[in-house]
Amino acid sequence: MDSTSSASTCLLSSPLEDQRLNQDSFIDSSFLQNQTNVPKEFLWPKVDLVNAHQELLDPLVDLEGFFKGDELAIQQAARVIRAACLSHGCFQVINHGVDSHLIKAAYEHLNRFFQLPVSQKVRARKMTTSGLNTLSYSGAHADRFSSNLPWKETLTFVFEENPKEAGIEDLCNACLGDDFKQMGMIYQKYFEGMKGLALVVMEILAISLGVDRLHYKKFFQDGRSIMRCNYYPRCPEPGLTFGTGPHCDSTSLTILHQDEVGGLEIFANNKWQIVRPRHDALVINIGETFTALSNGNYKSCLHRAVVNRQRARRSLAFFLCPREDKVVRPPEDLVHSEVTRAYPDFTWSDFHLFTQKYYRADAHTLHNFTKWLLFSKPFDNN
């Protein structure tokens, strides 16, 4: 089977903003779950709508040994992670150190937000205080695209731990009012927990690649990362659309918690496979930026999310990103006279710009970004 999504396989001749629906179009869960048929804007090509019948049965990665300083357990975790990353770029971790009560609270606030009337949700459509940290709501990404829309709505925080920047609590308060101060506090803690876990995973990834153990941890320490709450309403015809279409994340590392409904599927061993939800586990996906940082050794995870006829689905995603101006370049241990560079140097700001304005993420984003970077990137005349 060809793993390519037909929804986006070439560079766009015009920026993505030209492909979107009318700016005044708001699509939220109340609209979606009241449909008796899937609207044409949400229909996906038949080539993409291949069902997954097999469950991914890779071993879980137990992080308890890492936190106890057990070197044998750490090496074992590194071996399991290496096997997964060489194959398909996805693994699940348990005993990860993130409080289950915090995850539960994060879902409670997710439910509360997405149950708001659309008139209140759109107040968070694109909110920023002073600085670069942002809070944004999107209904089916209809503000960016007009076809192959995902059957979902999202609330996204872009955040850097910087005393000069507004915190998540400040963003929620400024955008949604005092009633959502507690939500901001919970998501601030959730973000901090996920950032800490992501740096732990980066340390084990370095071990698995045979490079300086702290190389990637230091690289990402000062990054601005992303947290996203996803809500996938019930769908009358789940076989015709996706909650999220097939793609690889352009970021470096994704940490996902999915609720008991499930819906995450990854492309492994040349077929789509189901990632069953586990309340005690977090799913880790390798993103395109880390593929470049590993000099192409580790695969970015091609994945998608399916929707459900009977039940709405929820998930919490954290995306680890480097600081915008940092040069994405593999460590010297992975590049020597016998090994050529898989990708040119680039910055996260350029890659992010590419996916936001010129290309809709799919299975070939990094490859097409490289071509754009070398041959098509507009010159900055400022």
Average pLDDT reading: 87
The unreliable regions are 1-24
Amino- and carboxy-terminal Cα gap: 46 Å
Q: Helix amount, in percent?
A: 25-40%
Largest beta-sheet characterization = 9 strands, mixed
Number of helices: 11
**Strand segment tally:** 16
Order of helices and strands: HEEHHEHHEEEHHHEEEEEEHEEEEHH
Structure explained in plain terms:
Pathway: Hormone biosynthesis; Plant hormone biosynthesis; gibberellin biosynthesis. Residues 223-322 form the Fe2OG dioxygenase domain. InterPro entries: DIOX_N, IPNS-like_FE2OG_OXY, IPNS-like_sf, Iron_ascorbate_oxido_reductase, Oxoglu/Fe-dep_dioxygenase_dom. This protein is α+β, with helices and mostly antiparallel strands. It is built from 11 helices and 16 strands. The chain has helices spanning 29-32, 64-68, 71-87, 100-114, 118-121, 168-176, 181-209, 215-220, 288-293, 348-358, 365-375, and strands at residues 54-55, 61-62, 90-94, 127-128, 134-139, 153-159, 225-232, 244-247, 253-258, 264-268, 271-274, 282-286, 303-305, 313-320, 327-328, 346-347. The strands form 3 sheets. It has a 9-stranded mixed beta sheet with strand order 2-3-12-9-14-7-6-5-4. Helix 4 (100-114) packs across helix 7 and helix 6 runs antiparallel to helix 7 (181-209). The model is unreliable at 1-24 (pLDDT under 50).
